[in-house]
Design brief:
Length: about 500
């Protein structure tokens, strides 16, 4: 740290020298004509003779990433948002005074360059600098050249540095942006309407999760950050918007691990006159076409395993998966008491009032979920863990519901929607009783939502897709924090809090 302080002081001294010479350290009057990607695309295959015949002058700007001086000449590598390029400086071209200014530059500084293209003796495409201008003086040194920024927590905490020095990180977030843009266009092309629903809610609902609580001073009421937009999107189905979707930030006051961040991005969409089976087909189409759009193929690699996103995806019944994949003994699955004791023996913690359905769900999480590597739809979930889903007509103990798993991760949850207001009231009342009994993931009864259903919601299906987890798989990222620009971290000791 002492060395960094010394570097900062040296650079501040350089700023003082520059100002004495009438040079601003932070001007804002340089105009570029090209980005580095433009140069590489248009001139990357030109030979030295072609470049020499060209008289085109380029104005580029970027951050100095490497610097080598050879007395009266120097090379730098600089990068902008689109790529990296080499530049060549010579004292006899710039003049002694300008070259003295150049020698005050450091790695990390942002400069504007004017020059023409040529190839060095080693064949590297390079811009021959006619003039340059300091645009931003960097006070702090970038991470050391050969070791880079590798400490995971530092990378997350100082994402701006991570983006500067680790090019693969920038690619991850560029692909994330492309993916979200594609998803949005996918639904718009299919006549879905993009909507926005409240982030602050009087009654949280739409998922079994512990919410964040806040307070509105003027109204004098407690509010909750949404755990899901589901109940508001269903209100829109009642209102006659038959196809809606929302790309939303949701908030759940839960643990942090490789697959969970308290603030995350969810896609939720609802379609009237559709079933959960229709949505499974739509999901296959969405994910496979998204992979093709990003990479030109459906086969990708995730953490050393090949994942084939080509439809159709495998489908398996929930109970069958416990038997055939989770290796839960058949005699256990036939006895409700044995199910609960078996789940508890494997470490599952059940709250008071949680029954067989919850025990089965926790058994599934422990024994089946990690083994679902290739895209797999699991159907037939217990009704106890599906409070907003339609009952199956042939077996009222299960819901018309699916979850999609890829690489051992839950990616999507969808179901045919429950639109019977009496059935919905009973289930939400049961949730409310669990809330009163101390279940922080259960929610109170939302009377306005029941009222909306009483006006009549058309038969429909809805689904939520975890965007962060989907991006993890598409970008071969092992942790959810690798695909969130600024994940939540415990504050450092020297960070101030209010």
């Amino acid at each position: 740290m002492d060395m960094e302080i010394a570097v900062i002081e040296q650079r501040k001294e350089k700023i003082k020298i520059l100002r004495e010479r009438g040079i601003l350290a932070y001007p804002n009057d340089f105009k570029i004509t090209h980005h580095i990607k433009d140069i590489l695309t248009s001139y990357g295959d030109k030979d030295a003779e072609d470049l020499e015949r060209s008289n085109e002058i380029f104005y580029l700007a970027g951050r100095i990433m490497a610097l080598r001086t050879f007395g009266k000449a120097a090379f730098i590598h600089f990068q902008d948002a689109t790529g990296r390029l080499q530049a060549y400086f010579r004292q006899d071209v710039l003049g002694k005074e300008q070259y003295k200014i150049f020698k005050l530059l450091d790695i990390g500084d942002i400069i504007g360059i004017e020059g023409r293209l040529f190839r060095t003796k080693t064949g590297e495409l390079t811009i021959f600098v006619n003039s340059f201008k300091l645009l931003t003086k960097s006070l702090r040194p970038l991470p050391e050249k050969y070791h880079g920024l590798r400490d995971i927590e530092t990378r997350y905490r100082k994402r701006y540095l991570d983006l500067i020095v680790n090019q693969g990180v920038k690619e991850v977030f560029l692909n994330r942006t492309k993916a979200i843009h594609y998803i949005r266009e996918f639904f718009i092309e299919r006549d879905f309407i993009e909507v926005e629903t409240p982030i602050m809610q009087i009654i949280p609902g739409g998922a079994l999760a512990r919410p964040f609580k806040t307070y509105h001073n003027t109204l004098g009421i407690s509010l909750y950050l949404r755990v899901a937009p589901e109940l508001y999107l269903k209100r829109l189905l009642v209102g006659g918007l038959e196809r809606v979707f929302e790309l939303s930030r949701n908030f759940r006051n839960e643990g942090i691990d490789a697959d969970h961040n308290p603030e995350f991005t969810m896609l939720e969409f609802y379609e009237a006159y559709a079933t959960y089976e229709d949505l499974m087909k739509l999901t296959e189409e969405l994910i496979s076409s998204l992979a093709k759009n990003l990479f030109g193929r459906c086969k990708i690699s995730y953490q050393g395993r090949e994942i084939d996103l080509t439809p159709p995806y495998s489908r398996i019944d929930f109970l069958d998966s416990l038997l055939n994949i989770g290796n839960v003994p058949e005699e256990v699955l036939r006895d409700k008491e044995k199910i609960i004791s078996y789940a508890q023996a494997l470490g599952a913690k059940l709250r008071p009032g949680e029954g067989v359905g919850k025990a089965l769900a926790k058994l599934f999480e422990k024994t089946v979920e990690p083994r679902l590597i290739q895209p797999t739809f699991v159907i037939g979930y217990p009704i106890e863990v599906s409070p907003l889903a339609r009952r199956n007509e042939k077996n009222p103990e299960i819901a018309d519901r699916f979850e999609l798993f890829i690489a051992g991760k839950e990616i999507a949850n969808g179901f045919s929607e429950l639109n019977d207001p009496e059935d919905q009231r009973q289930r939400l009342e049961a949730q409310s009783m669990k809330k009163l009994a101390g279940d922080e993931e259960a929610h109170p009864l939302d009377e306005d939502f029941i009222t909306a259903l009483e006006y009549g919601m058309p038969p429909a299906a809805g689904e939520g897709i975890g965007i962060d987890r989907l991006i993890m798989i598409l970008t071969d990222s092992p942790c959810i924090r690798d695909v969130i620009l600024f994940p939540l971290l415990r504050p450092e000791k020297d960070e101030t809090t209010i």
